[in-house]
Amino acid sequence: MYKKCYKTGEFAKLANVTERTIRYYDKIGLLKPSFVLHNGYRQYTDSDLLKLQKILSLKHLGFSIDEIFPIVLEDQNLRESFKMQIDLIESRIKHMVALKDSMESILSTIEDNDIDWNKIISLIKMSSDDSNIVEHYKSAKNLNVRISLHDKYSQNKQGWFPWLFEQIDFSRINRLLEVGCGNGKLWKNNKINLRNREIFLSDSSQGMVDEVRKTLGNDFNCMTFDCEKIPFKDNYFDAVIANHVLFYVYDINKALEEVGRVLNPEGVFYCSTYGSNHMKEINDIVQKFDSRIILSQTKLYDVFGLENGQDILKPYFKNVELKRYEDCLVVNKSKPIIDYIMSCHGNQNEIIGPKLKEFREFVDSIIQGKGNIKITKDAGLFICEK
Fold first, then answer.
1. Partner of 63 for a Cys bridge, out of 21, 58, 204, 259, CB 3.0 to 4.6 A?
2. Inside any domain, residue 49
3. What SMART domains does its record include (predicted)?
4. Is the model's pLDDT at 143 over the cut of 70?
């Protein structure tokens, strides 16, 4: 089938961008032309136009070039692409409408120089929250990528969340708090009788809490707060859960003090974490490809891991028991591995992004040589009695 082709100038004019922009995207590898003629002329097609639309849309929504790279170059059909952009735009519209309503509310109450400065402060905070739309999208997407890899390729068929749920002694629980609940995956498929029970799910991200509330409905109390300052009275809960959370908190000792404070004297704290061998093969892969790549500036298991967790917890709890989760991943496709790598918090986007095709071929060659990639999982749960 004949494809209509455009020279660089025609392509730029059609998209209402400068030729310099098109050449820059070509140079960094973000938008390569479909064809390069023997005389060096670039030829762009309608499919390149769709890719450019996606780049410009994400750029307008506040994504950096490094963040756009993996999103644009991932295998995503046209429907998925536009659905993703529509969701982001709807979030931006809701935020802008709320901002407008707040301004109109202030305007209607202004009389002479009598200004409610508390409303002005709230408006300032709301205005600065615009970037959180992008941050929430990235956090939610990265979290879903990670969960998807484990769901599809874990050899322990029980799965992490059902296993974790099974460790919780609900016979002793009427009031429960989960801090850092993320997308609420622990509760999605694990049913519990909620009669005479109060379950509070919290996260420091308002976006995550909104998503949990939308997914789980009104059966759970969803709240936004930091676990270093839990807004409940002393001895209120029978159990607190922190699933892969403690290594992210700013002040882990303050967080543990707060957990101990809100637990009743017979209460139990369930907190999970990773060991030093967790997903080590992933790091080996990127290091072999380019030794400059650092997937995380902080080794989470050094902050709070299976090796040092008991020593950190013992000052706050009388009994601390560790249960390990036995599992590994066996992956026979490169895409989920690459998606996982690109979801990390390090510098991989800027290094791998322009070389994504080369990196995919590198991972494919490893899989072809071995048949699959076996990845260590090193995770467990501390059960702590107050």
1. 58
2. yes
3. HTH_MERR
4. no
Compute the average pLDDT of residues 104-118: 69
Residue ranges of the alpha helices (H) in the chain?
Answer: 8-15, 19-28, 46-60, 65-73, 78-109, 117-128, 131-153, 160-167, 185-188, 206-216, 252-262, 280-289, 300-303, 309-313, 334-342, 348-352, 356-370
Tokens of 204: 């420091």
Maximum distance among all alpha carbons in the chain? 79
Task: Decide if 63 contacts 26 (C-beta within 8 A).
Answer: no
Domain contains 376: yes
Phi and psi at 275, nearest 5°, equal: -105, 175
- Residue 361: count other Cβ atoms within 10 Å of its Cβ: 11
According to the model, what pLDDT value does residue 90 have?
Answer: 75
- The CATH number of whichever domain residue 21 belongs to comes to 1.10.1660.10
Say if residues 215 and 188 touch (Cβ distance below 8 Å): yes
Its domain, for residue 326, covers 152-385
Q: Do 214 and 73 share a domain, yes or no? A: no
Report the pLDDT value the prediction gives residue 35, as an integer from 0 to 100: 87
CATH number at residue 359: 3.40.50.150
Query: What is the rounded CA–CA span in Å between residue 386 and residue 376?
Result: 32
Give pTM, 2 decimals.
Answer: 0.69
188 shares its domain with 333: yes
